[in-house]
Amino acid sequence: MAAPNPEPPAEASAELRFSVLGPVRAWRGTEPLATGSPQQRALLAALLLREGRTATASELIDALWGDDPPSQALAAVRTYASRLRKALSAGVLVSESGGYAIRSLSGGALDLAVAQELAAHAEKAKSSGDLCHARRLLNKALGLWDGEVLAGVPGPYAETQRARLDEWRLQLVESRLDMDLEQGCHAEAVSELTALTAAHPLRERLRELLMLALYRSGRQAEALAVYADTRRLLADELGVDPRPGLRELQQRILRADPGLAEPSAPLAPEPAAGPVRPAQLPATVPDFTGRSSFVDDLTEVLAEASGAGGQVMAVSALAGIGGVGKTTLAVHVAHQARSAFPDGQLYVDLQGAGSRPAEPETVLGSFLRALGTADSAIPDSLEERAALYRSVLDGRRVLVLLDNARDAAQVRPLLPGTAGCAALVTARVRMVDLAGAHLVDLDVMSPDEALQLFTKIVGQERVAAERKAALDVVAACGFLPLAIRIAASRLAARRTWTVSVLAAKLADERRRLDELQAGDLAVKATFELGYGQLEPAQARAFRLLGLADGPDISLAAAAAVLDLPPEDTEDLLEALVDTSLLESAAPGRYRFHDLVRLYARACAERDERPTGEQPTGERAGAMSRLLDFYLATAAEVYAIERPGDRLVDHLEPTEYPGLRFTEGSAALDWLYSEAACLLACVRQSAGTDRLRRAVDLLWAAKDLTESGANSHQYETTARAMCDATRAAGDARAEGRARTTLTNVLLVSGRIQQAEEEARLAMGLAASVRDDRAISWVSNDRGIISLHQGRYADGKTLLEQAIEGYRTAGNRPGVALSLCNLSRAHLGMGNIAKAVEIAEQGLAAQLEIGRTMRLANGHFTLGIALTRAGRHAEALSQFSDALHIFRDHRQRLWAGVTNFRIAEAHLAANHPARAAQHAEQALALGVIGGDRMRGNVLALLGRALSGLGQADRARACWRDALGLYEQTGGVIEAEEVRALLVTPRAA
Prior knowledge:
three-stranded antiparallel beta sheet, mainly alpha, 46 helices, five-stranded parallel beta sheet, globular
């Protein structure tokens, strides 16, 4: 990878510095020195590369001119040496024994010497097993190259050294890529390896690494196709077969050798000062009772997994009804086994019993952070996070406790992958589909165990005095541990009660459930004890905060719910944390356990009733303030991202203020961190008088779907709001809700469904004269027409959108629709007109400022310029677009921009570069869903075919055909079938 000019650091202002890993240059401190003519630079390079050894005059003449020196060669050498001596410091270029040498340089004076030292240190780090440090050192060494080695330097010596150093650089790249794969970075390596194999088609080691990277990325057919391409190329060019290592790798891929599936070294991109050893287990209960056979059984399984001879990773899955003591047993066993897992213990409540189980990718992010991985190194997708998690755990002995799981699908990505680690899983269902798991069915306690637990909580003296009554109590509890604990805790907290009093209460079967609250509500009495001890302000906070549906709540959002300053709100929340009625999820964020939330809501329904001062009650007011807070803040984010967009002036008014931001990055941080809570608030507002505000919140937060981070949740919410607004008979709100759903469907490439929703949205918006929605839907319908090949219809609709935006004074809307109108003219064959309109759209965006939508202007002009054959200009526009999309975290847009860059490179007959950017598009994902992914694969196949990699190209086309057939891409499917029919399509 090329680096900027390697100027020396300012602090070394008096020292000489030289570079040969690029143009031959010299500096004194920060001041560049004149190195003269090409022949004079050739002399300087020859002396520098001798590393202080003397070069005779004849050797220098051979180096500069070879077998055909000029008649005055010796005089020329002396002249060059004299000039260099004057330019350099005294005593640097010395005459000695009829020759010359460069001496008295500091250790870091020559970039080649620095690179050699870095490479040597990298090899040592690799040998010691520190691949992360080795990888960083190699990247630093490779960064010293600045284009062609000895660029512009003539002579046979320079040519020889250029070839030598180019070969060494390739060896370093191969070594670094090998470590990339060892650390699980296979998906990221595919793009670079594709470009390198195109540039060096006969280099088998690169082909081998590409095959392995593709295989580990789940692209087995392409990996095998690489081998077929390589074998054919070697036979055609050299008349030889692939080397044994490459043939062996092909056979291992065909066998699906498990040894290829995972890297052998952990990835820890941001190493801490020492190893991170998480200790996340909850405290074990001091009164743990019984379960001795289960404890022995589980302890034995964990001991076998952690021992030196352990060959497999152990999974023990505990199943049973709610309240049977799964978590208590698992935590107790985990604490007993801690010494067998010295590298740490991880714990998570997967919330499987609730309506919103924890997402595996979210849990993996938390685990990776706990294991010392920096946030910046945590990938987005579930598959990549799971692979990185297994890599980090490789070689460690860590125990993972996965509590309250929903099903095996939720658990699988969270399991370690190597021997020495173990997982304990608790769930209400038996995980028979969790391969290799040691299943434990936990039943209720025996009568003796139940009585022991009751006695430990209540006290020996009280139970001994009324043993029969105590047996009646545990029997009435059905020997269910949680019910026993609840009953015993109630008794222990009431010193005036006797055991007989409690037994009498439980004897009444009509009241027993009320007394115990068994099953999913079995903890109600325990919560009541804590709630009854709260101060009035704390109790109010507890009740109202439980109303919100989000997975957690920020301090600012909680302040809105309570209508209090943030400082006072924080005091109340921390007090609830101290009473164990609330959990501190992270600094500034809080959450309820699912059942505690249900209890808090029950309290709110009971205690927050309408009054004369608040006829709608505190509950409605709290939820209204929360919605206002989210809507006002989302509108602020929207306005920052789209300055001049008038949509924010036409949203429903809010009474409670939102947050204000001084920079766009902070605004985006808020939007993405609050996405789940914000969308939950929208869904919760269905069927209330807050419906219009909720729909407008969904509209203002539309970036959540285009980023690809929250697309599924956003779509679910949009559909729920369509149903709610239709049921309410609110045409304006329904039109806007369907507008948001249209956008989701467009982003995911479901064009037919998007068209149906857009037609409904247009009819509704027109019926109530909602001009904002009409313009938006006209633009979306225009885009839909382009996807369907109805370019004239698209042109008409987009012109209508432009007129509507102009009437409303919405400059960003005009600019965006101009960009889309350019695409319509492209489809109609009006290329010059398309370029003209795209330039107008870009100019309009530039007048507004450097916003995210400016990227759309560059992007569209790049497409038009590509069609016009102006490839270099197109690539410049795409580069500008890509930088902006990345800055605004629009991953899917960045992916589709890489696709367009690949198109431009292929049109310019640069298949290697096209393949590299197509691979990047596949890695990032693209706007347009599976149909657009098919376009990327088809383009990648064409690029690979142009590189002579026919078998891998056909593998890509087959994958593309499958996606087209699934998504209804009839025209595209026919084009790919034609490519597959052609034996060697280009």
